[in-house]
Amino acid sequence: MATTDKPLVWLRGEVKTPPFSAAARLEAGALLRRLQGGERLSMPHSRPMPAVGSRCHELRIVDVGKTWRIVYRLEADAVVIADVFQKATQQTPARVMADCERRLKHYDRVIREE
Q1: Quick one: which of 76, 101, 85, 88 has its CA closest to 28?
Q2: CB-based contacts of 63: which residues, under 8 Å, 6+ apart?
Q3: Burial of 113 per CB tally in 10 Å (0-12, 13-18, 19+)
Q4: Which superfamily is assigned to 8-113 in CATH?
Q5: Residues 79, 28: contact at Cβ < 8 Å?
Q6: Residue 78: exposed, middle, or buried by beta-carbon count in 10 A (0-12, 13-18, 19+)?
Q7: pLDDT tens string 35-85
Q8: Distance between CA 103 and CA 75 in Å, rounded?
Q9: What pLDDT score does 65 carry?
Q10: pLDDT > 90: what percent of the chain?
C-alpha cells in the first residue's frame, strides 16, 4: 500500500472465499484498492446510497449465482466499510440500511472522542 492510500476500516463483514467465489473476491479486492487510491467509482461498479448517509455508496459484485454488496463511506483519510451482504432482492433491505446508518453514527462518535 502506498503512503497516500487510504486504509480500509471494517465495521462489519469481510470478503473471503467462501462464500465469495475466488473471482468475486478478486474483483471486490480490486475495486476496494481503487477506492483506497482515491478513485471515485460509478455505475456499474458503485452507486450512491444517500438513504444511508452522505458519501455512502455500495459496491456491486456479481458472483456465480449471487450478487454481493459492500456498503462503504468515503472519508478524507479512510474508506469505511459498513457492511458486506448477499443481495437477494431488487431493493436493499431496510434492516441493512438502518444497521449501516447506526454503525456509521457509532464510528463518527468514536472518531470524535479520539
Answers
A1: 85
A2: 20, 21, 23, 24
A3: exposed
A4: RelE-like (3.30.2310.20)
A5: no
A6: middle
A7: 999 999 999 999 999 999 999 999 999 998 889 999 999 999 999 999 999
A8: 15
A9: 86
A10: 73
The structural domains of the chain, with segments of one domain joined by +, span 8-113
Mapped onto helix, strand or coil, the DSSP state of residue 49 is coil
**Grid coordinates standing for 23?**
473471482
User: How far is residue 70 from each of residues 2, 40, 67, 92, measured CA to CA in Å?
Assistant: 23, 15, 10, 11
How far is Cα 9 from Cα 24, in angstroms, rounded to an integer?
20
Enter the DSSP assignment of 50.
T
